[in-house]
Design a protein that fits this description.
Length: about 500
């Protein structure tokens, strides 16, 4: 199976009549190669924060959609956490009915422009694509992005229509993917929705974590505006558990959905880890993405770096490394304790990082940091690893070798994962949590140990994907609606 980041563009000559889908056999459809999305060159993009992939043109999108063979049992839907009618919107694209395709798509996904950019389609819908069994899978994610962008750019966005008012009020804590998705569905059900966000802008990880070159913030802002137009009331800079307690929310609202994410950064507790110039990936990316730290006039600037080490192998590590490169670093080292094969980051993100000159140090792990006379990190001492037997994750466990290498650095970005936001669990009596502080919630509904309180997204799952958080938001919204209609609260079976 080819990767999402193919190199050669082949656009076959296919007659594409307006308003109709060409009649092609499955053999002809399978013969169409996966179309490649144009992108900024690496030489150009390392000097800007503009989006890297540039999107499909209309004819190319139609040709790519024609690769769908219209399976009787479309397994691609099974791979989607929110159950999008994928064959339905692909057929509309093939016909050239982009407005109709957008309507089909948004029946199940209110954030397609976002999901089409950041979701790991290669591990979800595209992994289940039947075409992908023998050839490259249909570029479902890129076509999802195409439709959403086309709809927005052509002013064809269908407004979110509120349902008949029920008189019920729901508080949502956290304006990230889970919270935004739940808000949309609850509005459709006719409930009044009030959304509380701790930061000064809504979007959660979509605005503070994911860089502009992967997800333009104007897109997130646009989606939030659609919710506000539908009547969602948004309060930024409100920290639930401190500014307002959960008890106070329970006294005011008929139901509460907690979607506060996983924003507590992990560190390795190494000697020297408190030196200046060592950031968590959360802090580094939040400063840059949300607070414009690259601007010399920013209130929270980041230091100009020449040599940067990024510790980790996931998408967040790639985001940190690629951001550091754009901020002018001469050398950016990606230090990962396993091999490329075990990296959890998306293949496309790894390939983009390589093209941009990020230097990968596989099978290495930092053991301590040293600082200069001013207390700033100047050296990362890393131990070489080798792979042993698989651990609980199924990946081979890194084993120290006793061999070391010194990296001369002036900045370190630690991107080894995040834990759940601890504030609400710590300040809310009777809310059951797991060992590491994640809220326990019923898998099928999102209900918690507190009557009338639901939870979903990273606060339950740990740091996961945008689309999984959205799926949790939809699940919770349906359960909340059922509860508000019936008042029933059966015995809860908590997950974990």
């Amino acid at each position: 199976m080819s990767t999402a980041h193919d190199k050669a563009v082949v656009t076959p000559k296919i007659d594409l009549p307006a308003g109709a889908e060409p009649k092609l056999s499955n053999k002809e459809r399978m013969a169409i190669p996966r179309q490649v999305m144009p992108e900024q060159s690496a030489e150009e993009r390392i000097y800007n924060f503009l989006e890297v992939p540039l999107g499909f043109e209309e004819n190319v999108a139609r040709i790519e959609a024609l690769r769908c063979i219209k399976c009787k049992k479309p397994t691609c839907i099974d791979g989607c956490p929110v159950g999008i009618n994928i064959p339905g919107f692909l057929e509309k694209i093939a016909e050239g009915d982009f407005e109709g395709g957008a309507r089909v798509l948004k029946q199940d996904n209110i954030l397609p422009a976002i999901c089409g950019r950041v979701c790991p389609q290669e591990e979800q819908c595209e992994k289940q694509c039947i075409v992908g069994k023998k050839n490259a899978p249909v570029a479902i994610g890129r076509l999802e992005r195409f439709l959403a962008d086309w709809e927005r750019e052509h002013n064809k966005v269908q407004p979110l229509v509120p349902g008949e008012p029920t008189g019920k009020k729901v508080a949502i804590v956290g304006a990230g993917p889970a919270g935004l998705t739940a808000a949309a569905d609850l509005v459709r059900f006719g409930h009044k929705v009030v959304l509380y966000e701790a930061l000064h802008k809504p979007g959660g990880v979509l605005v503070y974590g994911i860089p502009e070159f992967r997800l333009p913030k104007k897109i997130v802002e646009f989606e939030v505006q659609q919710l506000e137009k539908a009547g969602v009331e948004l309060h930024n800079s409100v920290v639930i558990g401190q500014t307002i307690t959960m008890t106070e929310l329970q006294e005011t609202y008929d139901a509460i959905f907690v979607a506060t994410g996983a924003g507590l950064p992990y560190f390795m507790n190494l000697p020297g880890e408190n030196l200046n110039g060592i950031y968590s990936a959360n802090e580094y990316l939040t400063r840059v993405n949300l607070m414009k730290a690259y601007d010399p006039d920013s209130d929270t600037p980041v230091a100009k770096s020449k040599n940067v080490a990024v510790v980790g192998g996931g998408n967040v590590a790639m985001d940190g490394a690629r951001t550091a490169k754009r901020l002018g670093a001469d050398n950016v080292y990606l230090v990962y304790r396993r091999t490329r094969k075990e990296m959890p980051a998306r293949v496309e993100e790894v390939e983009h990082a390589e093209e941009e000159g990020i230097k990968f140090f596989f099978l290495h792990s930092p053991i301590r940091y040293e600082g200069d006379a001013q207390g700033r990190v100047c050296k990362a001492i890393c131990e070489r690893m080798e792979l042993g037997e698989p651990d609980a994750s199924g990946r081979r466990r890194p084993v120290p070798t006793g061999e070391y290498v010194d990296l001369e650095v002036d900045t370190v970005i630690v991107a080894i994962g995040n834990g759940p936001n601890p504030l609400i669990p710590r300040t809310t009596e009777g809310l059951d949590t797991k060992k590491w502080g994640n809220i326990k919630a019923e898998k099928a509904t999102g209900r918690t140990s507190l009557r009338g309180v639901w939870a979903g997204g990273d606060i339950v799952l740990g740091a996961a994907t945008v689309i999984l958080a959205m799926g949790a938001g939809r699940t919770a919204a349906k359960s909340i609606d059922d509860y508000l209609k019936t008042g029933d609260w059966p015995e809860v079976t908590l997950d974990g």
